Structure formats: C-alpha cells, structure tokens
C-alpha cells in the first residue's frame, strides 16, 4: 500500500473542542516511567510534554534523585519513586495511558521496573514504549503484553528491536517487521513514518533544528497525553507526530536550533487552532 502523508484533516478530526461539562477525569490518567540517576532530564521532558498536551492527570515514576527537579519544573505532576514496585504496579493499573522508557536506563533496576509494568497492563490501556524500554525488550527478548502498544524507536532502536540494520530499513521490510511485532510503530527520523497494520503514514514536516537530546522524550510524552484523551489511538499518534515537528518547523524559521522544552510550551496553542471550526 502507498505511503500516505499525515494531513491536517486528521488533526482536525482528532483534536476537538472540549465539552463544557467535563473535568480532569475526562482527559485521561497518564503514568510516565523513566529517568534513572543519569537521565533525569528525559523523564522531566516527557512529563512536561504530556501535561502541555492536555493529559487530565499525570503521575511520574522515576529515580528519587529527580523528584525535586521535576516538582520544581512541573508542579502539575504527581511524582513517585519507581523502586516501589508495588506502588508502580498499582499506579500503572489505574492509568489509561502509560509511557515507559525515556531515560529509564538498561541496568537491573530498570529491567525490574519494565517487567513490573509489562506484567500489569491490560488490553484497554495504551502503552508507549520508548528509549531504554525498547532496548531492554530487544536485548532480553521480553514478551509483550496484550495492550494498545505504541513503539517509538529511532532508527538505531528500530535496528535493535526489529533486527533490520538501518540500510535494510526499507518500506517493505519495515512493514513486515512492524506487523510481526504488532501495535503502532513510530519510526523516528527525518520524515518519521508511522506504521500500523498494512498502512504507513509519513510525516511531511521536521527539521535538523530538532536534533537535540530530549526531542524524542518530548514526543513520547505527547503521545501519552494524546492517547489518553483521544479514543482513536492511531489518529492520536499521528496528531502528536505532526504537531511535534510542525512546532519545530515554525520555530526554526528564526532559530538555528529548537529545544524540546520550547516545543512543549507551544503545544496548547497549536491544539487550539486545530479544535476551532474552519472558516
Ligand atoms: N537529558 C536526558 O536525560 C536525555 C536522556 N536520553 C535517554 O538516553 C537513553 C539512550 O537514548 P539514546 O537515543 O541517546 O541512545 P542510543 O544509543 O539508543 O542511540 C543514539 C545513537 O543512535 C544513532 N542513530 C542512528 N540513527 C538515528 C536516528 N534516526 N535518531 C537518533 N539517533 C540515531 C546516533 O548515532 C546516536 O548516537 C534513552 O533512555 C533516552 O530517553 C536521551 O533522550 C538524551 C537526553
Ligand atoms: N533531521 C531531522 N529531521 C526531522 N526530525 C528530526 C531530525 N533530527 C531529529 N528529529 C526528530 O527528533 C526526535 C529525536 O528522537 P530521539 O532520537 O528519540 O531523541 P531523544 O531520545 O534524545 O529524546 C524524533 O522525533 C526525530 O524525528
Ligand atoms: Mg529517544
């Protein structure tokens, strides 16, 4: 099947005016898990993006070293030590949308956290698997749960997960491996592709001004926020991918580099535009 562009029509269908008679419970409970002692910034950026993307309630499970920093930046988030596996399991089970992996790391503690999360998720939950969580699944050949799975690998992570070297990552090979894996695959690169069943979508936007650590962590948080709010999971993912790079392209008109946290701050303004009736 031909590769389809992600269009603004998909965003207008997805990001709708909020009903007046609604509350934070209406817009989803997102749980984000990641940020070890070395990569605290990754989970702070993912959490920031989920909140700016409109998640109703956001809880982050991370290394205790990151708790003060995260609270200082985003008091909207609830924050818990991810070493408490009992609480991790309880909070994960109560979420609509789970994001695991930004800055999680790949040591034994990170593996226990990931295994606890994967063991506790159910079919109705959206689970976004990013960064270190992709690497751990690939290196330990972990079995995947029945859930609405979304993988967000860059090309190197896709190589580890699929076994396809970057030069072998052709549309036909990617589709075959994506179908074997199941779920939605966001293959991040210049002109990111989103693969779902037999369909492949391509993001028309994106700029090398985005090549800064934390840009993918920000996308993962946006995907968490959008999948928690918007029922059609594929459209939620496509909308997150599109807006993420659209903001960057707009900022890059006048800036040589765009920071991930700058993207997050712009998300609500862009969502508003897509929610308005077309004149
Ligand atoms: N501030 C922070 O705490 C940050 C933490 N990070 C976390 O660090 C962990 C390791 O992730 P990394 O991605 O750095 O490490 P990886 O070792 O998985 O991949 C990075 C390398 O892959 C190669 N590569 C090839 N094609 C690529 C593509 N299309 N896009 C990106 N890289 C490509 C690049 O040479 C790059 O050095 C993740 O958990 C991630 O979330 C990163 O997000 C960076 C920022
Ligand atoms: N040259 C580029 N063109 C378009 N998008 C880019 C470019 N460089 C990076 N990006 C985007 O930035 C993000 C990088 O993701 P990732 O490598 O996971 O970052 P990190 O793990 O550091 O947060 C992806 O969404 C990718 O599409
Ligand atoms: Mg990444």
UniProtKB/TrEMBL annotation:
Coiled-coil intervals: none
Enzyme Commission number(s): 4.2.1.136
Domain of life from the UniProt record: Bacteria
Binding site for (6S)-NADPHX: 42, 103, 154, 217
The keyword ATP-binding is assigned to this record: yes
Catalytic activity: (6S)-NADPHX + ADP = AMP + phosphate + NADPH + H(+); (6S)-NADHX + ADP = AMP + phosphate + NADH + H(+)
Keywords assigned by UniProt, alphabetized: ATP-binding, Lyase, NAD, NADP, Nucleotide-binding
SUPFAM superfamilies found in the cross-reference section: Ribokinase-like (SSF53613)
Amino acids binding AMP: 188-192, 216
Cofactor: Mg(2+)
YjeF C-terminal domain segment(s): 7-274
Signal peptide per UniProt: none
NCBIfam families the record matches: yjeF_cterm (TIGR00196)
Complexes and interactors: Homotetramer.
Function: Catalyzes the dehydration of the S-form of NAD(P)HX at the expense of ADP, which is converted to AMP. Together with NAD(P)HX epimerase, which catalyzes the epimerization of the S- and R-forms, the enzyme allows the repair of both epimers of NAD(P)HX, a damaged form of NAD(P)H that is a result of enzymatic or heat-dependent hydration.
Family membership noted in the UniProt record: Belongs to the NnrD/CARKD family.
Name the record gives this protein: ADP-dependent (S)-NAD(P)H-hydrate dehydratase
Species of provenance: Furfurilactobacillus curtus
Gene name of this polypeptide: nnrD
């Amino acid at each position: 099947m031909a590769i389809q562009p992600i269009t603004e029509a998909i965003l207008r269908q997805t990001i709708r005016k909020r009903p007046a008679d609604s509350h934070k419970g209406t817009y989803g409970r997102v749980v984000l898990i990641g940020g070890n002692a070395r990569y605290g910034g990754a989970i702070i950026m993912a959490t920031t993006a989920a909140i700016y993307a409109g998640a109703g309630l956001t809880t982050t499970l991370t290394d205790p070293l990151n708790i003060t920093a995260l609270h200082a930046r985003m008091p909207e988030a609830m924050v818990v030590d991810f070493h408490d596996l009992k609480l991790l399991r309880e909070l994960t089970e109560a979420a609509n949308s789970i994001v695991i992996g930004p800055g999680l790391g790949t040591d034994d503690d990170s593996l226990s956290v990931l295994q606890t999360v994967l063991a506790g998720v159910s079919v109705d939950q959206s689970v976004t698997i990013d960064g270190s969580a992709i690497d751990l699944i690939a290196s330990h050949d972990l079995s995947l749960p029945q859930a609405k799975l979304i993988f967000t690998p860059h090309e190197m992570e896709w190589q580890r997960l699929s076994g396809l070297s970057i030069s072998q990552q052709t549309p036909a090979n990617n589709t075959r491996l994506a179908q074997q894996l199941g779920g939605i695959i966001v293959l991040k690169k210049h002109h990111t592709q989103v693969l779902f069943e037999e369909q492949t979508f391509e993001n028309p936007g994106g700029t090398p001004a985005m090549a800064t650590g934390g840009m993918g962590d920000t996308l993962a948080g946006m995907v968490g926020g959008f999948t928690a709010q918007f029922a059609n999971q594929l459209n939620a993912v496509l909308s997150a991918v599109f807006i993420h790079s659209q903001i960057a392209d707009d900022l890059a008109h006048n800036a040589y580099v765009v920071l991930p946290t700058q993207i997050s701050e712009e998300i609500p303004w862009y969502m508003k535009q897509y929610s308005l009736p077309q004149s």
